[in-house]
Amino acid sequence: MSIEINLLPWREELRERRSRRFLVTLALVALIGVGAAWGASQWYQHSLELRQQRIAYIKERTQQLDSDIQAILDYQTLREQMLTQIELIRELQFSRPQTVRVFNQLAASLEQGVYYTRLSRQADQLNLTGLAETNRQVSDQMRAIAAARAFAIPVLSEVQVEDDGNRRRFDMSVEETLPETPGDAAGGEEAR
């Protein structure tokens, strides 16, 4: 058995060249890899900064929209309050002549010997408490109220004899009616 040894220097040089080429290629690939990684990180960093700027812009616009929405809600609340006040003023403007009309009709329908001690109003219903000398005066008073144009038919709820026996305390309720003509609303009707 014989061992052959190749002592040709060109093979060693070729091997060294290949080793250097491999090392240079490896270094270039490593440099390209590091450069690509650095470039990718810079791209991601730039992309992240853009997204953060967009998020900050969106947050700023959202806060501005929230404040605008709150202002709109405040204006709507104010509008509702103003509409409620306008409606209340309209009702008061309507009820003022109606109240005058009611009092005129009450005064015009008051029978001799009958006195009102308490008068209350809830919506369109009038509750009356009064004193009369006889039951007949209470009946006459109810007929007079029923004949008045400002009222519907009264309902008598209670009649009591006072302690002294000379007077009758009565409670009645009656619905108000709407005026039929503008003269009625102003209280300009004649007493009967």
From TrEMBL:
One Pfam family this sequence matches: PilN
InterPro entries tied to this protein: Extracell_DNA_Util/SecSys_Comp, PilN
Domain of life: Bacteria
Gene Ontology biological process terms from the UniProt entry: type IV pilus assembly; type IV pilus-dependent motility
Region Disordered: start-end pairs: 167-192
PANTHER family assigned: DNA UTILIZATION PROTEIN HOFN, TYPE IV PILUS INNER MEMBRANE COMPONENT PILN
UniProt protein name: Type IV pilus assembly protein PilN
Source organism (scientific name): Modicisalibacter muralis
